[in-house]
Amino acid sequence: MKRNRAGAKRVGAAGAGARGPGPSLQEALAVLGEGCSLLVTGDVPTDAHRVAAARYFGNPSNERRRVLGLTHDTPRPDAWLPGAVNGEDDHAEIVCMDDALRDPAAVDESPAGDGGFSPGVDDSFRRRFLEAIVDVGDEEGPDGMALRVGLFRVDGLRAALGAEDAGRLLRDAATTTRERGGMAHFHLPRRPAEEGDPRSDSTVDAVATQLGEQLDVVVELRLRDRAVVPEERWHIDGWGSTDWHPLG
Fold first, then answer.
1. Distance from the CA of 245 to the CA of which of 9, 39, 100, 218 falls in 20 to 30 A?
2. Containing structural domain, residue 207
3. Shortest CA distance to 100 belongs to which of 132, 124, 68, 67?
4. Three-class SS of residue 56?
5. Percent of the chain, pLDDT > 90?
6. Contact, 154 vs 121, CB < 8 A?
7. Does the pLDDT of residue 48 top 90, yes or no?
């Protein structure tokens, strides 16, 4: 069921922190608890996104159903899942994209650069990722945000599939997750052009626009000097922006 967002601010837009007589944060979070999608961005290294992803996949002591999509090679895919949870668990699945390989000659020195992805083709990734969401999401288990779906990283998906096909896949994944009352978090490391406005980056804005009504929150990540853990700030559709909080 689509929610009425008439008059709502653009998710993650500048000025979103100015809040009027709208819903309280508790009420806004309660709506998200019915099913939601997050676009996670910020000028931070991969490890910060890994910490955030493990957090959004939920406490390992809670019964969850988890699907992780990876568009790049990584020596430890299970590190994106919380605690001792791994891809061999009955209620977890990791879907990796074939042929979306990192090109060392194209690596951007910026933590939030394009990641040096070479264009690749994996015609099966869309099918495998969406099927995993359906298969894992339809397993018997607790209701209420029990399904968690994550994808790292969106720019790798766009490099491999093209912007339009990648956007279509993200929308379908978000819709499929929401229909099952779950949370989807899509990671797109980028540096905002304007402080406090993650959508000031053209790629973040393009992906957010493609997600449309399926996007509920743009999450900013940052890692301050000498900080032990990254911090997050949520820009919630129809509500505004939270303060910065550690992902610990």
1. 9
2. 27-241
3. 124
4. helix
5. 65
6. no
7. yes
Q: Total domain count for the chain? A: 1
Q: Which of 15-19, 93-97, 201-205 has the lowest mean pLDDT?
A: 15-19
Distance CA 207, CA 202 (A): 9
Helices (H), the chain: 25-32, 46-56, 125-137, 154-161, 163-179, 202-211
Residues ≥6 apart with Cβ < 8 Å to 63: 91, 141, 142, 146
Tokens standing for residue 95: 């879907």
**Residue 226 sits in a domain of what CATH number?**
3.40.50
Task: State the CB neighbour count (10 A cutoff) for residue 135.
Answer: 12
Per the domain annotation, does 246 fall within a domain?
Answer: no
pLDDT at 186 over 60: yes
Residue 37 is assigned to a structural domain of this protein = yes
Identify whether 7 is part of a domain.
no
Cis preceding linkage at 10, omega within 30: no
**What are the φ/ψ torsions at residue 99 (nearest 5 degrees)?**
70, 5
Establish if 13 belongs to a structural domain: no
Q: Which tokens in the block code for residue 72? A: 């790049």
3-class DSSP state of 99: coil
Q: Which two tokens stand for residue 57?
A: 């996949």
Quick: pLDDT tens for 215-224. Answer: 999 999 999 9
Which residue has tokens 């939270």? 242
